[in-house]
Amino acid sequence: MPTPRKAAGRSLPDAVSAVGLRKSYGDKVVLDAIDLRIPAGTVFALLGPNGAGKTTAVKILSTLVTADAGDLHVGGHNLATDPQAVRAAIGVTGQFSAVDNLITGEENMLLMADLHHLPKQEGRRVAAELLERFDLTDSASKPASTYSGGMKRRLDIAMTLVGNPRIIFLDEPTTGLDPRSRHTMWGIIRALVTDGVTVLLTTQYLEEADELADRIAVLNDGKIAAEGTAEELKRLIPGGHVRLRFTDPDAYRSAAIALREGTRDDEALSLQIPSDGSQRELRAILDWLDATGIEADELTVHTPDLDDVFFALTGSSVPSQTAPSKETAR
After folding, report:
1. Are strands 327-329 and 298-302 parallel, antiparallel or unpaired?
2. pLDDT at residue 316 in the model
3. For 6-229, CATH number?
4. Which class for 105: exposed (0-12), middle (13-18), buried (19 or more C-beta within 10 A)?
5. In this predicted structure, what is the pLDDT of residue 67?
6. What per-residue confidence (pLDDT) applies to 324?
7. Least CB-packed of 36, 61, 155, 178 within 10 Å?
8. CA 55 to centroid of chain Cα atoms
9. Cα angle vertex 148, ends 143, 152, to 5°?
10. CB-count burial class (<10 Å; 0-12, 13-18, 19+) for 18
11. Any idea which fold 241-303 has?
12. Alpha helices in the chain (DSSP H)
């Protein structure tokens, strides 16, 4: 997973900063004084169940909705006093495509170039470059209505990049895409960040956040339930363990007697030992096995994943499209 970039030994400045962000609709508090800090050139993921406030946060930070309170800065501009400068610095791609299905892919791009007031020749050059970059050149003259879901999503992001924004808000950008198209989109997002673009990503796909994000905030009932790297969040949740499996009953019994903290499974001849999965703890178990001469036929490490984090912090059912728990056999 990527790590936040540094410049000259110090952290890069914040591309997005929100302190005390609040938003209510009538009696319903959608965002309850949340704080967000997104360093430039990184991917920040907002995770949360439906209705947690993810899309509202994106709409506020992209100037589409006004906050009730908060000190908000995007691209170094104050959201309250200089929203026009914020709009000039950002791009937004929502879960519902902005593509016009009645015109061609190229016409969609040229329309966006006109909206950015690019000279006609420059607009055609930028459109052609982006269509090629997103592998849409062969389909450029076809109506967008004939595009697959993945192609429309690529066109949507290409349109977003016409104005060369350095901060992009991606609100559930892979919703509804098949696994192949989703992985293609991940590659596009990684390439944007390599070019120095900052990405705020909202998603319900836990694997997506794990794959892409430098930092993740779990949003629940309008509040930040936890924030950190994927690994930091996983360490918040108990349940990690090492599983030793034996084929020799005598070796199993000897290990079970010596490792009293382990949970026994006499039928499977296996022991489950609580562990945070760290190299230090794993080495201690291996050293103990070597010292006693007891030989385990299989050692498996299980650490909590983002499924576990999501369920523990939100009390929600884990989305069905998430990846299974990660286990490493040794």
Report:
1. antiparallel
2. 56
3. 3.40.50.300
4. buried
5. 95
6. 35
7. 178
8. 14
9. 70
10. buried
11. Alpha-Beta Plaits (3.30.70)
12. 54-61, 83-89, 105-115, 120-133, 149-160, 179-194, 206-212, 230-235, 249-258, 279-292, 306-314
The amino acid occupying position 16 is V
Element of type H or E holding 98: none
DSSP single-letter state for residue 255: H
Q: Quick one: angle between helices 120-133 and 105-115, nearest 10? A: 130
**Residues of the chain falling short of pLDDT 50:** 1-10, 317-330
- The residues pairing with 74 across neighbouring beta strands, listed in sequence order, are 16, 77
For residues 113 and 123, give the distance between their C-alpha atoms in angstroms, rounded to a whole number: 5
| Residue 143: predicted pLDDT | 95
Q: What tokens were used for 65?
A: 């909705």
Task: Quickly list H helices, 161-305.
Answer: 179-194, 206-212, 230-235, 249-258, 279-292
**Residue 97 region, left (φ>0) first, then alpha (ψ -120 to 50), else beta?**
beta
The count of other CB atoms within 10 Å of the CB of residue 114 is 12
Structural tokens at position 52: 């947690």
Q: Which residue, 175, 148, 145, 170, is CA-closest to 157?
A: 170
- The conformational region for residue 87 under phi > 0 = left, psi -120 to 50 = alpha, else beta, is alpha
